[in-house]
Amino acid sequence: MKTKLIAANTEEQLIIRTAEETESCFEITVGENSQFSLTYFENRNENEFSEVTITITLKKNAHLDIMTAFAGSRKSKLKLKVIHEESGSSSDQKTLFFGDKSQNFDIESTTILDAPDTTAKIIAKGVLNNTATASFDGSIHITHNGKNANAHLNEHTLLLSSGAKINAVPALKIANNQVQASHSASVTRVDDEHLFYCGARGIDESSATKMIVEGFLRELYQGSNYIEKIEPIILSKIDQITNKN
Amino acid sequence: MLSITNLHASINGTQILNGVNLTVKSGEIHAIMGPNGSGKSTLSHVLMGHPLYSVSDGSIMLDGEEIIGLKADKRAQRGLFLAFQYPKEIPGVSVSSFLKTAVASVRKARGFGELNPIEFRKKLREKLAEFGLKAEFMNRSINDGFSGGEKKKVEILQMALLEPKVAILDETDSGLDVDALRVVSEGINECATAERSFILITHYQRILHYVKPHVVHIMIGGKIVMTGGRELSEKIEKEGYDWLKDKNQQHTV
Amino acid sequence: MTVTLDYIKNLNRTTLDDANSSEYVNHAKKGLSREVIVAISKDKNEPEWMLEHRLNSYDVFMSKAMPNWGPDLSLLDLENIIYYARPGEVVSSTKWEDVPAEIKNTFERLGIPEAERKYLAGAGAQYESQNVYHRLKEEYGKMGVIFEDMDAALQKYPDLVKQYFMKCVTMHDHKFAALHGAVWSGGTFIFIPEGVNVDKPLQAYFRMNAASMGQFEHTLIIIEKGGQGSYIEGCSAPKYENPSIHAGLVEVFVKDGARFRYSSVENWSRNTYNLNTKRAIVEKDGTIEWIGGNLGSGCTMLYPCSILKGDGARAEHLGIAFANKDQIQDTGAKVIHVGARTTSTVVMKSISKAGGVSVYRGLLKILKGAKGAKAQVKCDALLLDDISVSDTIPDMQIAENDVSIGHEAKVGRISEEQLFYLMSRGITEDEAMAMIVNGFIEPIVKAMPLEYAVEMNRLIEMEMESLGAVG
Q1: Best of A172, A180, A194 to disrupt the C interface by mutation (most C CBs within 10 Å)?
Q2: How far is CA A245 from CA A206, B5, B93, in A?
Q3: What chains are in contact with B, requiring at least 3 Cβ pairs below 8 Å?
Q4: Contact A181 C397 (CB under 8 A)
């Protein structure tokens, strides 16, 4: 287990690349008024397995920016827990999963808002091709102490083939009424009407799919620190998928 | 030139087009008017090759070559363009990347050289300005959150960039205020060269004040029942479509 | 909107909470055993296969564990429940005059005979384990419609019942389905023949009376091809200290092109554990609509389930749950898309007050091959104070990509601006809150038959009034 304390009033960044990381359990505390940015890349080899647990506790007015991206490994499991322990803390959580062949991602994300005036924004987007499968359990708990909490979870999955599967359980557990909390989830495929519109502009199906899948995932990394790191992985995987079809 | 002969088409087992005949020569602007449910929009979708429609009879020749059986992208690459009545939103795909890809595919098919990206962005910015749209539109997701007027302007802007041989404009005037209509019409007129043909599909006369057609057709019950000059559209404006209810054959006024 | 049912004017907590005498249970055995089950079957003079089914169910019940999820059921002592009680020497009759006075008055206060006169196609009333009244208006009988209490149906139409009984929900489904299979008594049997449209609702009302009762009515509904009908189920029980249990079972078979609407207003008392199971199997182009209000019981676990088996099958689930002080409403919807082009919509609204807990637990399962399936789920929860709780736990298992699935949920409280606006027009705070709550549940209430919409509104009003002004 690796523990880390981000001292009060500081800024820190951490990048975890599973292919290079041996540790599988992280406990991080973000001190008062600090900013912490964590990028987690699941980039192990196609034949490998990985399992990681990350627990992050946020102190007063602390802010967390976290991006978890799953593209590699045959089977990967992430248990993420973000605890807003003290007032004013906020988190911006993004999850991206992109599975091909028979990859499997098991993502459990729990956000607990246990203090007043906290904010959590969680977006997860996934694209699954071939017989890839994913399970996304994303829950928001606002305890009795979570007055004025503002928490929203959005999860969207694009299934590219009839063999892909998604299990999504976005949960809301709310015990204080002076809050704004919502969640939404959707599962779709590449829309035929979109393909036709692109076609009507001379863009063939494979290029159109490429464009649409990239546009779908781009929202997560656009304009962020992660863009140079993530974009190449995504683009090359999209290429792989659409060139085969 | 576009030549449509005896076109029959249906969707979900329901026959909509019942033998459409139409020839549009280069440089001509044809208007197709008709009441709701006459099959005008279906015609535009069938011409562009929408997968949900089945053609049971007839032919569509673009510059002497049959295009029935070709997918939409191939038709676009050969020079056919459709300005949609309800343009689709594609979240995450910016206007500039969408158009760059489209223009590149069409140029490639026509044997032109590669597109210079800097030049393209410059041209796109110019066109946006011509249509009264801010440069930041380039980076917005195509049609996502656009007003009705903005959507239609972007459709015509796309036409200007793709330089088609035959452009079908499906109710481009619907939902536009006077100013937007004027801007859109100017865009169309600028593109109306001797090498290009237009089919303006419209329910109302309005756009025909700004974009003057050479020929006006009336479509009812899935076929063209009357063909004439501009005076035909004026008659529709005054009298509506009721007087045509009994007409089943093609007439020339 | 005019009140068309007079009984609503007089409806208040005592109407529901008052109990009649219950000497008939003085000798009733508590707890469950093979002997109790054999006695039930003998009392009803059932065919051999039904007794066998009961005993097999009992074995399954004993072998299954209590659910390890959901509300706490530890205070429900299954040994301390009376599983079967006939309220004296009562038989089912088709005339209200023949129903014993005390029982008849209970149903009068609950508005059943009035509703029957005014707008139902048929009505049934069950008191404890026994059906006391059942009548179908003649014109529907002539069309071949069958509307009987379940015990009578087993006697009159044994083959038809055997064909369908517990085939939709089997004894192996879960512990309380097995319990039901062992001790079921009474309930409703509806058969609508091919192409017949029963244009007025059929209704049944279930009333528990004695303390520590268990009610296990079985409702079996079969709608043949192209048939149409609707059914309203109401229930209540007096309030006691000791727990009561309701483990009813509803099975609906919707055949090709048929359409059925199942509405229920559940208003058991606070000491009742409502562990009901409802499921429909829908064939090609058939439609099932579940409309429900859950208000009364102390602990509810209820997840109506629609299995969209045939291509083009449709399900609509609309529900309201009100969780007041000391209540847990753990409700939801389960939809399983099997056929192609199947569609489902789920709209659930919940209100939690004074520490009540409301949980939405849903399952949306799209099986491989359910191409073109469309499903939408919308859950809204209103927390009226800062001690109440709302959980939304939707489980989506999608194994087909040619689908369109959407789910959204929101949790919040009554907006201050809305309250202020109403109060600035002279409306008191309590009235304003009640108005806003009514507006919140309106989309569901308006799907109910008008008379029930009015009842639903009145029942919610009563919940809002209880325990004084809202905090």
Answers
A1: A172
A2: 7, 35, 21
A3: A
A4: no
Chain A interface includes C397 (CB < 8 A): yes
What total of structural domains would you count in chain A? 1
* N-terminal to C-terminal alpha carbon distance within chain C: 29
pLDDT at res. C193: 96
User: What counts of helices (H) and strands (E) characterise chain A?
Assistant: 3, 14
What is the tens place of the pLDDT at every residue in A54-74? 999 999 999 999 999 998 889
Tokens of A56: 């992050």
Kindly report the nearest CA distance between residue B115 and chain A, in angstroms: 15
**A85 found inside a domain:** yes
Query: Residue C427 in 3-state DSSP?
Result: coil
Q: Which two tokens stand for residue C101?
A: 């006075």
CATH code that applies to domain B2-252: 3.40.50.300
A237 lies in a domain?
Answer: no
Say if the Cβ atoms of B101 and A212 lie within 8 Å.
Answer: no
C-alpha B113/C-alpha B99 separation (Å) is 16
Phi, psi of C131 (to 5 degrees): -80, 130
Locate the domains of chain C by residue range: 15-415
Q: What is the pLDDT along chain C (471 residues), one digit of tens a residue?
A: 344 567 777 777 777 888 888 888 887 788 899 999 999 999 999 999 999 999 999 999 999 988 888 888 888 888 888 888 888 777 888 888 888 888 888 888 888 888 888 878 888 888 888 888 888 888 899 999 999 999 999 999 999 999 999 999 999 999 999 999 999 999 999 999 999 999 999 999 888 888 888 889 999 999 999 999 999 998 888 888 888 899 999 999 999 999 999 999 888 888 899 999 999 999 999 999 999 999 988 999 999 999 999 999 999 999 999 999 999 999 999 999 999 999 999 999 999 999 999 999 999 999 999 999 999 999 999 999 889 999 999 999 999 999 999 999 999 998 777 777 777 766 777 777 877 888 888 888 888 877 777 788 888 888 887 754 443
Q: Are C161 and C153 in contact (CB under 8 A)?
A: yes
| Residue C416, burial from CB neighbour count under 10 angstroms (0-12, 13-18, 19+) | exposed
Instruction: Determine, for residues B51 and A217 on separate chains, whether the beta-carbon distance falls below 8 Å.
Output: no
Chains with 3 or more CB pairs closer than 8 angstroms to C?
Answer: A
* Residue where the block lists tokens 């054959």: B249
CB contact under 8 A, A159 and C403: yes
| Chain C: residue whose CA lies nearest to A127 | C401
Where in chain B are the domains?
Answer: 2-252
**Considering CB atoms only, which of C385, C392, C402 is closest to A172?**
C392
Q: Chains with 3 or more CB pairs closer than 8 angstroms to A?
A: B, C
Q: Which residue has the tokens 């991080």?
A: A28
- Token pair 């599909």: residue: B201
A205 touches chain B (CB under 8 A): yes
For residue B191, give both structure tokens: 């593109």
Quick one: DSSP state of residue C334? E
Q: Is A207 on the interface with B (CB under 8 A)?
A: yes
Residue B197 tokens read as 């043909």
User: C12 — contact with chain A (CB < 8 Å)?
Assistant: no
Put simply, the answer to whether B101 touches A216 (Cβ < 8 Å) is no
| Per-residue pLDDT tens digits for A186-239 | 999 998 889 999 999 999 999 999 999 998 998 888 767 767 777 888 888 888
Domain that holds residue A75: 2-189
Q: Nearest C-alpha of chain B: how many angstroms from A178? A: 31
